[in-house]
Every structure is written in structure tokens, then in C-alpha cells.
Design goal:
Structural class: mainly alpha
Helix content: 40-55%
Strand order of the largest sheet: 1-3-2
Largest sheet: 3 strands, antiparallel
Strand content: 5-15%
Length: 122
């Protein structure tokens, strides 16, 4: 009996986990949207539902709201790519703020050690 050559299963039908995909040499597949958690942090960044609502309200991210026609309630979805980009942006800003604060502290210590305040009359 000959072995049958079956075509590979499409990615969207595969039940392969991301770690199994990585072991098979395939790029990991991630969801485009995730549902906001009812409590606790989200599965991408660990941030709370209220944090994402504030980010949406302040224009930092755009949450997706869906519901069936005639339904009173629906779902709020978090775009994963926007979430990751926002966290990276805020992390870079925080790192820059820390650098500025560290430089300001060095200048303050230098002025304090010299005993003289800088003159602005020049």
C-alpha cells in the first residue's frame, strides 16, 4: 500500500500552539484582537480593563466595540498590534524621562558640590 500525500492543513484550521509552531520552524501566529478581561490583566501586556478604557478615552488606542443587531450588550476588543505599539512607545518615553531626571540630578549634585549657583547675568 502506498502512503497518501495529504496537503498541509491551513493555518486557521490548525490547532497548533505557538510553541509547537516555533518547534516546527513556523512563525508564531497571534490573534489580531483579544477580548478585554472582566477582571485582572489582559493576556498581552497585563494591563487592566480600566487602563485600556482610559487609553481609549485619551486617544492613545482605539478599542473595537461589537454587538449583534438588537443586542444590548456586546464585546470590547483590544487590537493587539496597537496595544504592543503603545506599550513600546510609553516604555521609550519613560526611559527618556528617567534619563532626563538622572541628568538633572547629576547637574544638581554638581552645583551643590561646587557651592556656587550658576549665574544668569552673563
Amino acid at each position: 500500500m502506498e502512503a497518501q500525500n495529504t496537503p498541509p492543513m491551513p493555518d486557521f484550521l490548525s490547532s497548533q500552539t505557538p510553541s509547537a509552531a516555533a518547534a516546527a520552524g513556523q512563525p508564531p501566529v497571534h490573534a489580531e484582537f483579544i477580548s478585554l478581561p472582566s477582571r485582572g490583566g489582559d493576556s498581552v501586556c497585563g494591563l487592566s480593563r480600566s487602563w485600556w478604557y482610559l487609553a481609549d478615552k485619551n486617544g492613545l488606542i482605539q478599542l473595537v466595540r461589537i454587538r449583534q443587531r438588537g443586542a444590548k450588550r456586546g464585546r470590547v476588543l483590544l487590537p493587539v498590534d496597537q496595544a504592543i505599539a503603545l506599550v513600546r512607545k510609553l516604555g521609550a518615553q519613560a526611559a527618556a524621562d528617567i534619563t532626563v531626571a538622572a541628568n538633572a540630578a547629576r547637574v544638581t549634585r554638581a552645583i551643590g558640590n561646587s557651592g556656587a549657583a550658576p549665574s544668569h547675568d552673563e
